[in-house]
Prior knowledge:
Blueprint lengths: L1 H35 L7 H8 L2 H13 L10 H33 L2 H23 L4 H14 L1 H20 L2 H6 L1 H11 L1 H11 L2
Amino acid sequence: MTAGVLSRSAALVYHLLVVELLFLVTAGPGLAVTWLLDPDVSNLPLAALGMLPAGPALSAALYALHHRQLDLDDLRPAALFRRGYRLNLRGALPIWGSWVLITAFNLAGLSGAGAVVVLMATLWMLNGLVITSLFDFRARDVARLAAYTMIRTPSVTLANLCLLVVAVGTVFYFSEIALLLAGSVLMLALSGNARPLVALVRTEFTR
């Protein structure tokens, strides 16, 4: 029993490390450009462009972690990440890009209402990333399902809100780099949070 637990734990750590490395390779350069820019409104377009590659990378990480195998003789996290990236590139960009635009537009105003909009948009985006990473729907259908499941699966919405609090706390107490280095762990948590959502979509919207 102990050997089995240890082997599965080792396999999970290996998955997380490989997925994190591939996430950093695919999303890191663009995010680095964004973080190096001066915090000025005139830099928002370039900052938004730098953030775009992170969407497909997060989607690929979700796909790889959702489909992970914890058999030490059948570990393929890199292959799963590449497959997820290839399958979800076109689907993830509209959801992620919409969130980036909404966030950039509302943060530029620095108002309380804008902060609420960004929060709701982020919760919507997280649902959308999960759906587009694991299912094959058109972008507009993913957008609708992401909003629908925010209401139909309140436990997922609440769990994701807690995840956002952890992410913001990581940035506040440590740095953006710490959040980036925890990317695969956060995606594993998101995948776990989203189980009721995935079950709902599979039951009600797939054959």
